[in-house]
Amino acid sequence: MSGKVTICFLLLFHHLSSTSLSYDVLSLSKNETLASPGNVFELGFFKPGTISNWYLGIWLKQDPDRTALWVANRNRPLIGSQGTLQKKPHTLRSR
Q: CA-CA distance, 23 to 48, in Å (whole number)?
């Protein structure tokens, strides 16, 4: 499963890097997500259970529970429901 998640992330990152955005900073709130090109995976912020921390993760788009397959900031959760996803050449950062 880990290999599939890595491939998904790479495809999503490639999709982000190939889009013609006129900006390098994309703000996502708790209800906004980015879908993979085939609409199989989704990237966004999620809050597990009653914990007040927020995480940036990837889950299956059809999963109503948004069970994370990959988490970017597992060791550095965000406080609050809005974060910034910053795309720079060869990097992707959440704040």
A: 30
Determine contact, residues 34/44, Cβ cutoff 8 Å: yes
Domain that holds residue 89: 2-94
Q: Residue 20 has what pLDDT?
A: 46
Q: Answer whether 24's CB lies under 8 Å from 84's CB.
A: no
58 close to 66: Cβ distance less than 8 angstroms: no
pLDDT tens for residues 3-54?
Answer: 555 555 555 555 554 444 444 566 677 778 889 889 999 998 888 887 788 8
DSSP state at residue 55? E
Structural domain tally of the chain? Answer: 1
Distance CA 50, CA 53 (A): 9
